[in-house]
Amino acid sequence: MMLRQFCAPLTAVDTVNTESVSEVTARKDIRAGDPYLSGHYPHFTIYPGIFIIESVGQAVRAHVTRHHGAAYRAELVEVSSVRFTAPLVPGNTLELNARITPGEQGSDLFRVKADARREDGARCAAMTLTFRLEDRNA
Question: Sign of dihedral through CA atoms 53, 96, 124, 32?
Fold first, then answer.
């Protein structure tokens, strides 16, 4: 039986660029019609902060698949810091840039410093997360 790693069907990234071994970028268009926005602050709908963290997680998982293969996954194990600084509202585009730093030699942990901005350049969030690289076949 395969266990789900995260709660889908939230699509928290629309496009992901995994070309760099130490960086991943992603974009997410915030759409008023997306079902998860309908009740979040009814008179001022915003993309929830926890979804920004999920956006980073989905981008990192795509990066791990690209650079380590489908047998590996990234498990979020720690949120060291997170700061939300500006809202994302319908019509905005979330632009993520995440720098990936491997842990000490022999460690299966790696650190991600992510910067989330709107299309106008305003910073929405900054965070430092730690993930564990796991081999699904082990």
Answer: negative
Which domains occur in the chain, in start order?
15-135 (3.10.129.10)
Q: Is 40 a catalytic residue?
A: yes
Burial code of 39-63, b = ≥16 C-beta within 10 A, e = fewer? Answer: eeeeeebbbebebbbbbbbbbbbbb
C-beta separation of 123 from 114 below 8 A: no
Cβ–Cβ under 8 Å, residues 105 and 52: no
Comparison of pLDDT for 54 and 10, the residue scoring more: 54
What was the pLDDT predicted at 44?
79
Question: What region does 80 belong to: left with phi over 0, alpha with psi -120 to 50, or beta?
Answer: alpha
For the whole prediction, is pTM greater than 0.70? yes
